[in-house]
Amino acid sequence: MKPVNIAIAGLGTVGAGTARVLARNRGEIARRAGREIAVTRALVRDLGRARDCDTKGVTLGDDPLALADDPRVDIIVELMGGESVARDLIMRAIANGKHVVTANKALIARHGNEIFAAARAAGVMVAFEAAVAGGISIIKTIREGLAGNRVLRVAGIINGTCNFILSGMAERNCSFDEMLAEAGQRGYAEADPSLDIDGVDAAHKIVILAAIAFGIPLRHDAVNCEGIRGMSALDMELAADLGFTIKHLGIAARSGDGITIRAHPALVPRRHLIANVAGVMNAILVNGDAVGDTVHYGAGAGAEPTASSVVADIVDVVRALTTDPDNRVPHLAFQPGALADLPVVAREEVETCYYLRLSAMDKPGVLADVTRILAERAISIEAVLQKGRAGDGEGDGGGGRVPVVLLTHRTREKNVDDALRSIAALDSVDDSPVRMRVEYLE
């Protein structure tokens, strides 16, 4: 049987890693796929640049549509990132009857509904395992391994850059700026780290996981997204005093008749497995009604961990080349006609517990005013921590400012929004209270 020819669009970190894995494990991969897989073309920006992989026998070019139009190419592997050019390439490939493998989480989260509809009409596959959590294979786990479950929640650490920064702040007492600089030096953060530290990358990923877990269309417009930019070392310290650590989480969960989709920093109990995931590693908890809690841990990025998922997708596509299109694994786990457009709960209606930190005057009556405001909005307090700061005039009863932390029981976000506006208006409290969610993940 003749080899399956693939074209790799982008020979950067992941593209070169994919080419290396395909070459190094060529025989093993062919045994699994049932056919040889050959890289015949590649898209590059600079034709004269040295590559971190062997390009002997590979035709290099800088025209993306030439890959999609080449009749000798069976599968397009899109690893260049971005949205506009990548979308054009993928849609052209689909129109030409080619299968697609991509690691582009932004493209899938924002344009996946359109791309999958085009692929179904053309009878081709679009595989995207590497778009979420690098080498963990979480998409296949939820879509196929847990197909017998009613998934109730998916939650976890899905951005390694944020986790590296927060882990260093907690373990080494470093500032946010120090850890961000180190992440850049180690290659964990881009020159412009906004997509990571502002939560956008995690938001793209949790949108994809929510669609697969709950059988809904991709809803990038509805995700509640917050990042870790400027995270305070004081909050890391106070969270530890209360028995928590701060992690940036992606969370998708059933809530009544709807779904919540969120990506934001949260306090997690130190005893939880997720709380102990350090550095750039990812960990995702999936709860199904039959299986209960499962935790999936591994490298969320990197050349060959991500290439591992890319190659697995290539193998899946090769195995299914002769399969009736109507009998392939659906892109979003559920049959296209069975997707349920469940409502996504608005941010202000989401219910969870909260960590609130105030900078308040150290004098009688201040805490009473704060607790009165919370009580008027039906917000119940679980714990209070007031911590004086030695050497700065605070905590001495003389009117200096001290950090006051309150942990609440579950309440609606709109109640907390309203309460914080009233608390910030108090003369005895600074006008910028800190609010983070508390996720017990139970």
Number of DSSP E strands: 17
Radius of gyration: 24 Å
Secondary structure category? alpha/beta
Helix count?
Answer: 14
The low-pLDDT segments are 390-397
Largest sheet: 11 strands, mixed
CATH architecture of the largest domain: 3-Layer(aba) Sandwich
Give the overall pLDDT as a whole number: 94
Residues in helix, %: 25-40%
Distance between the termini: 51 Å
How many separate domains? 3
Provide the CATH top-level class of the largest domain. Answer: Alpha Beta
Task: Estimate the strand proportion.
Answer: 15-25%
Classified in CATH, the superfamily of the largest domain is NAD(P)-binding Rossmann-like Domain
Shape: elongated
What is the CATH fold-level name of the largest domain? Rossmann fold
